[in-house]
């Protein structure tokens, strides 16, 4: 069943969009990521213009993340205080990112920037997560291995400390604010919730327990992506509501399924699986950037008819 998307100016199969939304919703529930890092490139692959994919995906992430968050609230695995500190940084970052996006769109460079950002960030994050997860699995096999929680000396030396009871931490608010700021900028430019950066940062940089990280990440993602969607809709006019609704329906259903799957897997297994998915998407995007210029022009021509 083909449906015409007015803002994107293309026709797409409605069931394909529902399926993509469901798939990304499952990942959102399992890993505590908004799923945008996967959905936005998938939208590129089916012919949605990057500017529209980024702005509309931010809208869909709000719904799938909210659905995932509800499941975590029942288990009391959300650190609201940490989530609020991350959120403050995230809102500032999102406001900056939307302005950068608008400026680049005005000079016609936004499509290239979005794709390059994806290749660079997914490549770095995926590789780091993969190596760290392998090390964690190896350590599990050694009964005498010491737990690695004491590498955060420089963070403990920073001023502005605050108690985060749910996470069992007493650290400076500066690192979470910076993590939130970076994630906010990426949410605006790349159409992502930023969970694929925030989750590893919360585990390895802030030293938060993995069981609290997922729910806290989703809490922050909801507000930052909601704010980003509003900014894009009023500044760049690139939010396609027909596309957003189809992705949203699939995403909400998928997030509930994903949360149930995530509970049954060990933290290390979840992280290595997420790392492999991130690297796979990065490889496909890099391949398309290097090998596909002619097809991109023909896509543009098809959209103009």
TrEMBL record:
The keyword Zinc does not apply. The keyword 4Fe-4S does not apply. Signal peptide: none annotated. The chain crosses the membrane at residues 12-39, 85-106, 112-131, 169-192, 212-230, 237-258, 270-291. Pfam families: TauE (PF01925). One of its GO terms (cellular component) is plasma membrane. Keywords: Cell membrane, Membrane, Transmembrane, Transmembrane helix. It comes from the Bacteria. It is found in: Cell membrane; Membrane. It is a multi-pass membrane protein. Coiled coil: none annotated. Belongs to the 4-toluene sulfonate uptake permease (TSUP) (TC 2.A.102) family. This is Probable membrane transporter protein. It comes from Candidatus Rhodobacter oscarellae. The lineage of its organism: Bacteria, Pseudomonadati, Pseudomonadota, Alphaproteobacteria, Rhodobacterales.
